[in-house]
Design goal:
With 90 residues, the protein is α+β, with helices and mostly antiparallel strands. Helices cover 14% and strands 22% of the residues. It is elongated. It starts with 7 loop residues before the first strand and ends with a helix.
Length: 90
């Protein structure tokens, strides 16, 4: 999965992140990537610091990209307009 810096991602695996001074992730929460390594990511917030104060990366597999989809309700609107064949039989 290819991530990029600045990309919004959703947490899909928050297990085992509440240890030492590292804040717990929340499954389903949206985060922003600020650094990418070999299978690892660092987030904008929360800044994950270990007991020595250094920044902790997380496994990228814990996240999935957030996909923005354009809403198109034209198909549903077409269902509201009766077709000519239905009107003829009535």
């Amino acid at each position: 999965m290819a991530f990029r810096v600045g990309q919004k991602v959703a947490c899909v695996d928050a297990s085992g992140t509440n240890f030492q001074n590292i804040p717990e992730l929340t499954k389903g929460e949206i985060y922003t990537i600020r650094w990418i390594g070999d299978g690892l990511v660092k987030l904008v917030e929360p800044l994950l610091r270990n007991e020595h104060g250094s920044d902790e990366p997380l496994y990228a597999r814990r996240f999935r990209p957030v996909v923005k989809r354009k809403t198109d309700i034209s198909v549903l609107q077409a269902l509201l307009v009766p077709s000519a064949k239905i009107r003829e039989t009535v």
